[in-house]
Amino acid sequence: MENDGSIAKRPDAQGSPNTRTVLVGTACERRVARAAPHRLYESALLIAVGVSSCALSMFLGRRASVWFDEGYSIMISRRPVGELIRLTSVDAHPPLYYLVLKLWGSCFSWQEWSLRLLSAIFAGLAAAVTVLLIKELASPSVAALSAPLLVIAPYHLRFGYEIRMYSLASLIVVAATLMLARAVRMRRKRFWIAYAALVALGMSTLFVTATVWITQFLLLTVASVRRRMPWGWLEAYALALGLYVPYLPFALHQVLSATINPLLSHGMTLAALGDTLSLFVLARSGDGIGPVQTLLCLFVAAIPFWYMFHVGGSRATASSQTAQARDRRACAVLAAMAVMPLGVFAAIDALRQLAGVPLMYIPRYASFVSMFFYALVAVALTDRIQPSLLLSARSRVIAACAVVCVVAISLIGIANLDADGNRNFGERRTPMAETERAHIVCSPDNTILAVDAFMYIETAYYFDGCALRFLATHEIALSGGYAPLHGSPARISDARELRTPTVTVLTWVSDRKPLDDPRYRLVHERVFSRQKVSTYALR
């Protein structure tokens, strides 16, 4: 029988190139059509998480008063770029955040709400990227269920309204971890390049992010040794080092010569670890909570252990058991990222103690790993309430109750933030400069005298345009956090240099006689928390 080409025309014939092209094209179109709603849902979820976290940070920061570190950030960000870099080179932190803050303030506004908004945006982006990280490590359903818990993460929100580099560091660290996870899974060069760039950016934002990069280096080393993973990832670290080389000499000088206040840093001890946990859970340091709050902190910390070692209660299918095993691996990775950097801090402080130099760890340095802690707790909880997992009624009730309890505890932490304001956990005090400014009149006849350089930097933002001076017997050294005041015309070495009819002294409650000058008499005194405002007039 003569072949007239009818076989190629039959609907079930797939041998023709044209037919295969049509079928493949149709299949791709169907996959794209099915994926479109999921991408739309994912985008909406990420936007909701980012906007909610940003808005909540701004709400909590609405009554926050600028404190010393924030005042320092604003002060040097207003300097010319060259001077800004010179000042940061003699301080403890690199210049990237200050340059970003300068650009933001110059383009938009130097008003306090605007400066806090920058940090809040970084915090919102960090929360959204954490959702993507959970999706990468676990599954889309676990990521979606975890999202609300990431929005109400207390310690992350605390630094979402602070005019410092910590929320930017959190964003960089989480984004770098996401790129690393994708690079390991997909083995594509672009993810390794992105990871290397983020490592360099992290080191240009906050030196102590090195604890995260060391952790990830160790995890990759173990994976290469035990699971025979290729060692090509070393090229990413070489690239990161190459990108960072131009700033490396300045970084070494900063790290080796940085002055650390021994009153703020007691090193990574068990007490500091307890402080870190209580700050993560309730946004209060360990000495500010009682037995009940301590029990709540231990409850939240125990959830990942309960999840990792909980056996039984599941009648899941083989596919859902595979998914649960993947979620357990995700928890293991998140636990390593939350805990191992603290171990690196402990090792560094142990070496510093042996060398006889001041210890380094401060609880705020753990802020950029806090999202790993919250993600760990969220994954451990939400995996047990997935609809695809066939659990006993008892197990579902326990998991649901645990979720409700964690949400309630997080809300308590948020309430603590709202009540405490911009509390300085290291010094155990709440700054009051904005409140003090509301009770002080600026005029040419009234000199406002900060009792020391610390008080001047903390209050300078609110007294812009006023006759603000600070008392310092000797010239301020060009090093550390006071370096912006080196050669400042606002310094007076003796109160007898004052000539105005009235002097308002910004001081501390512990100062018995803040203005020791017989020409002036005390006419009024007002206490704001641990700060004091004393008004003097010429006799």
UniProtKB/TrEMBL annotation:
Q: Where is the Glycosyltransferase RgtA/B/C/D-like domain?
A: 93-248
Record-annotated membrane-spanning stretches: 40-60, 113-134, 141-157, 163-181, 193-219, 231-251, 263-283, 289-309, 330-348, 368-385, 397-417
Any idea which UniProt keywords this protein has? Answer: Cell membrane, Glycosyltransferase, Membrane, Transferase, Transmembrane, Transmembrane helix
The processes (GO biological process) annotated in the record are:
lipopolysaccharide biosynthetic process
First and last residue of the signal peptide: none
What is the predominant subcellular site recorded for this chain? membrane
Q: Which InterPro entries match?
A: LipidA_mod_glycosyltrf_83, RgtA/B/C-like
Annotated localization = Cell membrane
Q: What is this protein called?
A: Glycosyltransferase RgtA/B/C/D-like domain-containing protein
Give the species this sequence originates from.
Answer: Bifidobacterium subtile
